[in-house]
Specification:
The complex is a heterodimer of chains A (309) and B (96). Chain A has 309 residues and is α/β, with parallel strands linked by helices. Helix content of chain A is 37%, strand content 16%. Chain B contains 3 helices and 4 strands, in the order E-H-E-E-H-E-H.
Chain lengths: 309, 96
Amino acid sequence: AQSTSTFNYATYHTLEEIYDFMDLLVAENPQLVSKIQIGNTFEDRPIYVLKFSTGGDNRPAIWIDTGIHSREWVTQASGVWFAKKITEDYGQDPTFTAILDNMDIYLEIVTNPDGFAFTHSTNRMWRKTRSRTPGSLCIGVDPNRNWDAGFGQPGASSNPCSETYRGKSANSEAEVKSIVDFVQDHGNFKAFISIHSYSQLLLYPYGYTADPVPDKEELDQLAKSAVNALSSLYGTKYKYGSIIKTIYQASGGTIDWSYNQGIKYSFTFELRDTGFRGFLLPASQIIPTAQETWLALLTIMEHTLNHPY
Amino acid sequence: NEDFVGHQVLRITAGDQAQVDKVKELQDLEHLQLDFWRDPAQAGSPIDVRVPFPSIQSVKIFLEAHDISYKVMIEDVQLLLEEEQAQMSAARARVR
């Protein structure tokens, strides 16, 4: 693409194409968007985050990541669409403009670059990172079991060959550690949203324990509002609730960590599958998926703005 | 590229917790090389699993032997992957 206006948002893209898109977006919106490298992957690829900011020092911020499980291609594709949407809506949509006038947004579009590149080159069904485990022929760690939140408890595997292998220790994966360091250094994140696919869920902590989070009532109400907003566009049906109650016990998960860091508005999405295609969602559904998800994101972001803590 | 010819994705519906537990037993059988897209959780929640071609017969026999209902969600994963690749190539060609 010559510009982000001619970029095709309705098809899937390689890592290189997405990284080129990010550079274009920054070049076109230098006052609003910047690119930050927060680390390098196991295979030494750069890990980038887009920062959307209208100024100020260390404003309260919202974190959004897409594609930590590499085969969930509709999430990275939605992340690309969100990035463009942010630049389009700032100054046009009053609700969103108020958010970005007061808070920064950090968007990590390809959260697992090694895995994502591997899905394009070798194995479309790859989910994990590409790190090696000494003493095992199996490769990769599930980066959504590698966080320091109930790490090693039931709900993750200690077997390196498992799709839910937790890794040798919390934060062993560069892709996870980079975010941990960045978020802790920043110190002012107020919402943390991690986006997966598929199965149409909006979840809040916890996954590693059945104990309800102290903010359960507020998170439940907010999830309900977000799901209602999402469904209002195309009627897509979502369930919502805590991870452990809604799906199953999962330890070492992303938003359990972020919540325990004091980031109250911690949520994770599982995006669409309406057509029984699982991870192979047709590209024609990328834009509708991103559009409806954006409405839920807006609901969470607006609530975060209006409920400072 | 890894070949997924003949891989099927089954949508399993476990009617009660005992059936959920039976499906969980399948997860432990590494030789079947099963890839759970949606893990077994609660009775009534769909369980989606990609089954490599050599394991299809074993898995279906296991499910039928325990009276666990399932349907084939994706007949051949490779066909969908080829469709996806063709769409991406077409999109690139249009750009050029």
